[in-house]
Amino acid sequence: MTGSESSPSASPSFRLAYVPGVTPSKWVRIWNERLPDTPLTLLQVSAAEAPDVLRGSGADAGFVRLPIDRTGLAAIPLYTETTVVVVPKDHIVAAVEEVSTGDLADEIVLHPLDDTLDWEGLPGRPALERPATTADAIELVAAGIGVLIVPQSLARLHHRKDLTYRTVTDAPESRVALSFPDGDPTELVEEFIGIVRGRTVNSTRGRAPTPPQPKQRKRPEAAGAGRKPTAGKSGGKNPRGASGGSGGAKGGAKGGKGGKPRRPR
């Protein structure tokens, strides 16, 4: 630990490891929008190195390819990749949309030392030697030495104009996971888990929840205020008076009809 890391006034930072083929840019962008004061440092590591980097505190969290040795590590599976075979563009496999491992029985199938697919038995015919890396195997495919079966993201990563790839329907699939040291995740790891899982910025997971605001009580109205008067009723109860008044009005109306109009003088 450096002096700046041990200083209580040092700004926190988040170190994110990732294996080849994984593109963390979307999640990094969201992190920078939500936590602009906490820098995120990316660390690219090989698939074989990733578990030891996380166990050795070389990174706070990392994207790995399963299966891995999960001793001391937690892992959250995120998605599963399609498996493809990389071939020269003029190869017979390029004429179809997908193949099975049985279709590759007569092919030399390269098996690099950094292969991450969990094979029970590699299809095709083995090469005389195993390439050290996937990148080395791609060069051999371009040279016409054999074909290579990899997760689709690695085929895209090592794209060449003279090569193409097709889906292998029955090959093992690569699962990408977010891994971090086992135990209770740190606050920053919780933040990143939330981003990867698509939690919104208003989610309370990993944050102190916002206390609910008290509801404003309505002021009590004055007694009788706002009440609508009942039709046909006045303020006081006087049915006789009300009836008499009504009768007098009717009487006046009748009297007006029966009397003769007075001549003007």
Polypeptide structure, described:
This protein is of the alpha/beta class and 265 residues long. 25% of the residues lie in helices and 22% in strands. It has helices at 3-6, 25-34, 50-55, 134-142, 152-157, 187-196, 239-258, and strands at residues 14-18, 40-44, 61-66, 73-81, 83-88, 98-99, 108-110, 125-126, 147-151, 163-168, 174-181. Strands 6-10-5-9-7-8 form a six-stranded mixed beta sheet. A five-stranded mixed beta sheet has the order 2-1-3-11-4. It is elongated, with a radius of gyration of 40 Å. The chain starts with a helix and ends in a 7-residue tail after the last helix. The model is unreliable at 1-9 and 231-259 (pLDDT under 50).
How far apart lie the N and C ends?
122 Å
Percentage of helical residues? 10-25%
Main β-sheet description: 6 strands, mixed
Secondary-structure element order, N to C:
HEHEHEEEEEEHEHEEHH
Q: In which order are the strands of the major sheet placed?
A: 6-10-5-9-7-8
Number of helices: 7
| Sequence stretches where pLDDT stays below 50 over 5 or more residues | 1-9, 231-259
Looking at the structure, what is the overall shape?
Answer: elongated
Backbone structural class: alpha/beta
Instruction: Give the tally of β-strands.
Output: 11
**Mean pLDDT, as a whole number?**
82
Radius of gyration: 40 Å
Measured by DSSP, the beta-strand proportion falls in: 15-25%
